[in-house]
Amino acid sequence: MESRSAKLLCSSAGGSASSHAQKYRVGLPSAWVKAMALSQDSPDLELTFENDTITIRKRSAQIPEDFMRSARIDRHQVKIYLYYHADTLCSTIYADFTSRVVSIENHTDVLIHRAFGCNLSPTWQDFLIFLEERCVPRTRTGLDSILEAMNLDTYDPVKIVEQTEGRIAGDLQWLSISEVK
Description:
Layout: E1 9-12, E2 22-25, H1 30-35, E3 45-50, E4 53-58, H2 64-73, E5 78-85, E6 88-96, E7 101-106, H3 124-133, H4 143-149, H5 157-164, E8 173-180
Antiparallel strand pairs: 1-2, 3-4, 5-6, 5-8, 6-7
Protein name: SpoVT-AbrB domain-containing protein
């Protein structure tokens, strides 16, 4: 991992922004931009903010075929999650566990049956939240006993969903999961 220091560049926002609004920029080394295969023709980035860390990634391909082709070429660990309502396939989630990005396909117009509702470009964090929503709550009394029965040492939504298919009492949603080889 390469690390460099940088300065935050500040300027007035302009346009229709309020008179006190600011615009902030950070310069990236050209070697990094080239390594990420970014250019004026392909400038899209995904920014993730968590606690005190900002992560910059090349925006994941929104077309699942391109997403999968890229992940296979790079030999990434990818899982496909088929999200059902009863017997109806509602969403397909392509999760790249190496790059920590997702791509989705929705197969229904019923928003409440889609994995991410109206969000057509979920982030990795959105994906992890989705999985946790398909699990026994972290705050459940007796959680340690449940995890022990599942042969899990810690609360891990990915592993819990793999065992339970994301089934929750009182709804008809569930997941079928496969790993891409």
